[in-house]
Amino acid sequence: MTLKAALVATSSLLELVNTMTRKEVKTYCRFCHAYCPMVATVENDRLTALAPDTDNEIYGGYTCVKGRQMLEQIYQPERLQRSQKRQPDGSLEAIGSQQALDEIAAKLGEILAEHGPRAIASYNGTYSFQNSAAHAVARAFHGAIGSPSFYTSVTIDQPAKVAIAPTRMGAWTAGTHMWNDSDVSLVIGNNTLISHFSVPGGVPSFSPANALREGRKRGLKLIVIDPRESEVAKRADLHLQIKPGQDAALLACMIQIIIREELYDKDFCAEHTQGFEALDEATRRFTPEEVARAAGIPEEQIFAAARIFGAGPRGAAVTGTGPEMGPHPNLMQHLSQCLNAICGRHTRAGERVPNTGVLTPEAPVHAQAMPPQPQWLTEGVASRVVDDVFETTVLSPYGPLKEMPTGLMADEILTPGEGKIRALICVGGNPLLACPDQEKMHRALADLDLLVCIDIKESATAQMADYILAPKVCLEREDVTLLTDIWHDKPYSQYSPQVVPARGDEVEEWQVFWELGQRMELALELNGEPVDMSQLPPKLDLLRSMTRGSRVPIDDIVAREGGHVIDLPDVIAQAADPATRGYLELFPEGLDGELESAFADMHTVDDDFPLLLISRRMKYTHNSTGPELSLLRAKDSYNPTFMHSDDLTALGLTDGDEISVASRHGAIPGIVRRSDDIKPGVVSMSHSWGGSPDPSRGVDDQFREMGSNTNRLIDNLHQLERYSAMPRLSSIPVAICKRAP
Ligand SMILES: Nc1nc2c(c(=O)[nH]1)N[C@H]1C(S)=C(S)[C@@H](COP(=O)(O)OP(=O)(O)OC[C@H]3O[C@@H](n4cnc5c(=O)[nH]c(N)nc54)[C@H](O)[C@@H]3O)O[C@H]1N2
Ligand SMILES: Nc1nc2c(c(=O)[nH]1)N[C@H]1C(S)=C(S)[C@@H](COP(=O)(O)OP(=O)(O)OC[C@H]3O[C@@H](n4cnc5c(=O)[nH]c(N)nc54)[C@H](O)[C@@H]3O)O[C@H]1N2
Ligand code: SF4
Ligand SMILES: [Mo]
User: Which residues form the 4Fe-4S Mo/W bis-MGD-type domain (predicted)?
Assistant: First the structure.
């Protein structure tokens, strides 16, 4: 055989072997929380292609540009595949994961013995939510050592929604109207087309563009309140381009119009709510005339929004991060829920309950209010930093869960005394970029005796870590869609097996807590069951314990390939049970003071810092994940400072100018981008960009390459929200000027 013939024969043989080992695996994306189903092609244990799963009946083949970059993410040479240990000279050196865990456990043991359990903290960021076993095992570890220092990104996200409002007002057990059978949807600062994140009643997270088209065809009326003509606002029937931070005033005014024009549901209010008269009385001062002036929107639009929403008959008000991070979030969220309550936008007795979950425990559903639990706001472990702040009670399908407020985490590290945090395990999060007051967080992380990061890259936070543990990325591990279990309209679930094996010495997030627990001789418990501490349990065993008593056994989901709507009988809401029913509290303790303060804020202007900086999500990144991937990075290597052309003209700026953005707290460099979809007077920038503020890293000279961190502009203790300690992360008064060359 000639050499050429031999080569041809070898390559066709290789091709044949490849085809023989080529397989297609149904899986789902965990880049964001939408969990889009995908089909992965695997050849010789290597991922060679990723495509949308077009068979899926919920998503209809939807995926986005971020998810499609997972192929690059998994094989990127920069991705960490081995754990790293900080050396005395500051450099990192690879270390075996088992050795790293031995050393970390020994150090934690010392800290525990000397300073007690509260000194050991974990911060569970965005990607900790994406591993379906991570939170449960992290909580089990905290439980076993008795440490309350459990932090997540929820308390710097939307705690008013998940913790404060349901605690003060109570919650409707049978749920609120969903998008799919609504006549109207009132979307307050939530941009699902980019974020793929919403709550029931808003534009669904799953295949949002299709959902919007379907809604429009059905005649659903979409009202959007947003200072920016966001991607969702562009498709709205009515867009109220509000001045940031005036949402509470606007909602109070809409409530008044709905009451005055008798568009509310009198029977529902009489039967299921309390405090209606007080709410009516206290919102009267928010007149359409005054609110229109403060919010910078025409009076007619406020009337139109109230009337369309009031007409319903079905459909809910939902909120997103914009107003949840701005001024008066507890009040704003409460008023949005008051709109739903007074208009009775809840599932009634005899109606189908949208979805009670697949892997969630089965329980009868009554059309009634779960009563308010005001004691949850002031019980539990108290903050050592700020008076009257306690653990936050986050509601989950498994009951109330406690966590400490992340907005105060840096102070809990820096404040001396008993309970001072000395060790922090940071799971799939990047607090140095994500938390308010970046300089303070930098000082805090530097002050720790031990910082461990579980991260795919040397993030700004991981640059300060003593150990970085390399995790498996999603396609290298099995998971199940537990997080989204009750977010769908229909019972839907997907299990994904491991698609490709990890090639290095990667660990899973939950495994880290188990391994530490084993070395520290702890007894971990999941859902009341002891975890086998003698040898690393299979993940599926843990998932089985976590979902014990679920509507569908997890093994049934595991047995099915791909994601499916599960054929389950409809759950019909039963009549209220007189023994357990409660009332939705429309006027909880303290609301009058909050209304007063929102009223006083209607016309406040800071003359020195006359513009308002708001947050937004970007299409090509997920918080700080994405800029390391070539296609996503090619779109933008920095976070532009978006402004209206009127403001640019007034400031003598042009598109692309280098500027300085200053607040009362700090200043950052930026690059201006003209964007006439933004309300004049407003500046819109994405968070979690930039790098460490350590001057030696020269972040201020590299803003074109890595962007700027807006959290340098924010004081984490200024205007802290009551109960949640949620810092004001948006609606920040700023001034802008051209950057000195
Ligand atoms: N000013 C301002 N601040 C904000 C916000 C805002 O709008 N404005 N938004 C807030 C919100 S909503 C949130 S949720 C927080 C986000 O806060 P964080 O969750 O703390 O921040 P992320 O940037 O999402 O951090 C994700 C980290 O996980 C790593 N990672 C990526 N993939 C994986 C993986 O598969 N496994 C593991 N283990 N790690 C992985 C990334 O490299 C990155 O370092 O920020 C908050 N901060
Ligand atoms: N592509 C992408 N997707 C993401 C993320 C990402 O970084 N990138 N992050 C994920 C995370 S952590 C979260 S929490 C979700 C968040 O999901 P969303 O809450 O949908 O977040 P945004 O897309 O920023 O939409 C917030 C909207 O609020 C508007 N807004 C700002 N200030 C105000 C205000 O004062 N009042 C009103 N009414 N509106 C205001 C903004 O202009 C913006 O359009 O998205 C998730 N999905
Ligand atoms: S929307 Fe994009 S990033 Fe989110 S799960 Fe779907 S494909 Fe992944
Ligand atoms: Mo978030």
Answer: 22-78
